[in-house]
Amino acid sequence: MLNQLEIIKKASILIEKKKFIQAKQILIDFQKNAKNLKIDIKFYYSLYLVSEALNETQNAKKNLEKCLKINKDNHIVLNNLGNIFLREGKIDKAEQLYLNSHNLKNDYLLAIVNLAILYQNTGKLENAKKFYKKAIELSPGRISIYFNLSRIDKNFINEEKIIHLSNLIENEKDLSELSYGYFLLAENERKKKNFDLEIDYLQKANQFSFNSMKEKNLKTLDYWKNVITKKYNKFSFNEFDSKNELEKFKPIFIIGLPRSGSTITEVLLSSGRKKIKSLGESSIFNGILAKGFSNKEDLSIDLNSVKNKIIEIFQNKNFTPQSFFIDKSLENFFYIEVILKIFPNAIFINTTRNIEDNIIAIFKQSLSKLSWTHSLEDILNYIDTYLKVIDNFEKKYPNKILSISLEELSNNIKDVTKKLYNFCDLEWTEDVLEFHKRQDLLISTASNIQIRGQINKYDNKKYEPYKIVLKNFFSKYDWLN
Length: 481
Hints:
21 helices, five-stranded parallel sheet, alpha/beta, Rossmann fold, 56% helix
C-alpha cells in the first residue's frame, strides 16, 4: 500500500492532468483506510484542490478548515478560504481572511490583489487603490493590475505610464495580459479623441482576449451560434416523477445583453424594504443544459434531473432561497421554456438599450468570459439571435416578460422602478431610489463604479464617433438600420 506522501504525489499528477475524479477517489480511499494515521496538511490541501475543481464548494471549504486546524497561520490556505466565503457573499469574513493572509506574508501578491478587488467591488475605492498600488510595486510588469486600477482612478494612466505599458506590451507573451494592455492603449486614445486608433486597439485587445482561451472560446462560440440557437424552442420534456420542490418559489430572472442596465436593475430590485437574495450571474441553467446539448441532436430534457441538480447547486453554494430570489444570468433568455417548467412562478426582466449603443458598449468593454463579445461580427450575430428569441417568447409568454429600457430608467427612474416593482409583485418604497447609499453592495460587473452614485441621464451621443464601424452590417441586419 502506498504511503501518504506517495498518495499525495500521485493525486498531484492526476490534478495536473485535470483527472479530478480519479484524484479524489485515491485520496478518499486512502483516508478511509488510514486508521490512526496523522493526516498531513498537504493531503487536505490536495482534497481542497480536487473539490474546488469539481465545484464541490462545501467540501472545498471543509478541507481548507482542516488545513487551518493543523496550521492556523498558513497564508495560502487563508487566502483560498477567503475566496470561498466571498463567493458565498460573506464579505466581512472574506475580508478578514484576506487581511490575515496579508498580515502573515505582506508580499503575498494573491492576497493583495484579492483585497484590492474586494474593496473595488464593495465601493471602498481608496482602500482598493492602496492595495492595487502595492500590487504594482511587487509586480510592476503585471499589466492587468494597471488595468484594474485605471477603472477606479481615471487619472492613474498618464503619458509616462503609457510609455511603460507600451514597453511591457512589446515584450509580453501572455495573451490575456496583452489584451489588458491594448484596452489601456485604447482608453488613452479615447481621451485624446483619436477614435480610429482607439478602434484599432480595441480590435487587437479583443482578439488577444479571445485567443487567450481560444480552445474554450471556439467551443462555446459554436454552442451559441450553432447549437442552442436551433434548439431553444424545440425542447421536449420528461415530466416530473415526484413533487417539484422548486415550484413554490418566485424567482426573478434578469435577462438580455451585457451593458444594457442589468446590474442597476438587479441593484434596484434588491434595494426595497424586502431584502431579496441574488445568485448573481450563476449560469446555473446554462451550466446544466449546455453539457447535455453539445454534439447531440436529442431535444429532450429530463426535468427531474435538472431540478435535482439545481437543488444540489443551491446546497453546494450554501444558498437558501426565500420566496423571491434574483438570478442575473443574461443568457437565460434561451432557457425561458425550461425555467418555467422548473419554476412556474418565475418572471423575466429583459433589460434593453439603444441597440447600436449596446453593440459598441460591448465591444469597448473587456468581457473576457464571453466568447461572442470579441468581434463585431460575432456580437451582431449573437444579438440577432437574441432579438429573435426574445420576440418568440414575448409573444408566447406576454405576462411573464417585462422589458426595461436603460434610456427610460435613466431619465425617469421613479416611474420605471414603480412599474418594475409592480410587475414583480413587490412593494415599492422610496428606499429603492436610495440604492447608491447601500453599504452592502458587492458588484463585480463592469458597471461597479457607475452604480455607486446617482443614475445619470442617458447620453444619446456617447457612442456616435464609433458607429461608422457598423456600416458594413446595415444590409445584413434590418434591425440595425
